[in-house]
What does this fold into?
Amino acid sequence: MHRFSDVRNIASSLRHLRGFGALDDATLEELTAMSRLRRYRASQVVSHDGEPCAFIGCVHDGFLRMQKTLVDGRQQIVGLLVEGDMFGQAFSGPHHFAIEAATDAEVWAFDRAPFEALLARAPDLERVVLLSIMNELDRARDWMVIVSGQRVTGKLAGFLLVMCSTFAEIDHILKKGCDGTCLEISIPISRNDLAHLLGTRPESLSRAFHALQDDGDIRILSPDVVQVHDVEALACKAGDDDLLSSANLRALVQVAARRA
Amino acid sequence: MHRFSDVRNIASSLRHLRGFGALDDATLEELTAMSRLRRYRASQVVSHDGEPCAFIGCVHDGFLRMQKTLVDGRQQIVGLLVEGDMFGQAFSGPHHFAIEAATDAEVWAFDRAPFEALLARAPDLERVVLLSIMNELDRARDWMVIVSGQRVTGKLAGFLLVMCSTFAEIDHILKKGCDGTCLEISIPISRNDLAHLLGTRPESLSRAFHALQDDGDIRILSPDVVQVHDVEALACKAGDDDLLSSANLRALVQVAARRA
DNA sequence: CGGTATTTTGAGTATCGTCAAGGCCAGTGG
DNA sequence: CCACTGGCCTTGACGATACTCAAAATACCG
It folds into this structure.
């Protein structure tokens, strides 16, 4: 986890968030003025289901989960929010899912009214928000393909690849292990949450983990950290080509291939 | 299907599309000037996988499907585009799925460059585009919940409810049947496509249809038109509350309740 | 060190995917 | 007008997979 004490001031911290670096200094300054850092403990509620989020948020550290509560009380996770992800739907009504902290988390909060006002007169900010939403749309479609796979091992393989590609630059999630020949993933959510995310049960998930390990594709170091040894085998099991398309993930595969 | 011959001119036709009614006359006029109506036959390709769409499109009539081709050649449908839906990702790179006509379809096509230029100086258009994207994001999340259900009957129930709520105002899809006590849905895609959309197989889908019929929830008039008799039972099987939240769907349920 | 929560394992059952065959409908050609 | 053909949907039987329930093992935390 990034040490919060390292953050000298808000402006410099905001600038390093994905996307925000492209903002004008003036815009960034205004944003800074209206921002506050909120902290949440794991499983604390950030925004309730069915009501508009009280503020526009941007994750600074940790993970949030977006989840729907189904009629039978089960909870279906519809996505994760990580460092740099925005939420709170500017311009739009309430979102119909709850947001909770999946781990201890820190969030930049912008009051809705001034944020939307700034949005209206700062095209650069608007661009950032638009890209953020389209990014989320892409990710939602990725999840759809993964979740609609019919084998649990396939869904898990897809999830691991998403972890590799979308979190490639977040080093406390993804590390090179085995002297660079494999990747080491810290899974940020519990088995139970992961099961909900993939639309399955913890028991099936556990078996899937060990099935992948038996095939030599991964190695389970502890319940929440695994090494990926064969990225392409995972892609094959996941069925989705695009999960391999992230540039640095391809690079990592090539590194592994050279050593083989 | 709306008769195209009814469309006197492009501007008045554009204005009636969802969202576009909010545009200024001046913006609408500019849009009109850069638009062309394209027609597609069922299963014709609109945009290829992995390349940026040649134009920004807006569906005028019929259905398009967005689909990914998986490594094993199977096709996974990740969403449908209906009347009023936009596609072609202004500002963004290529989308990583193909778009094909699911039925015969008509599409308004705007050349990318002038469209983006207009977007940059017409805040009202920008708003429409932003809302369109957020709408799509919401729908993608809805699909995720539906598709991740573990029973096929549940997925099908969810699909039928989505048909009822998101297409409520499109009368050639959704009609009141049985003197208003039930809804009649024309399913716009083949069983095969629907199976791909729900992440299952045509055989399982067929069984699910008949299981719902045996429970008295629906009645199959023909393979592509069904009557919904018990909306709440479907919602219960689908598990997702929000699918019932559309205002007019709730109203229809209440009508049904009063008659019971 | 003990208590709790999480994860894993096991056995039994239900569901679904698979393969194969049959039925229905529309379009074609005799 | 009718037989034929091809596509799509349905039905049946079987095997594989995953869910359920229950219990054991492990990790976590004080």
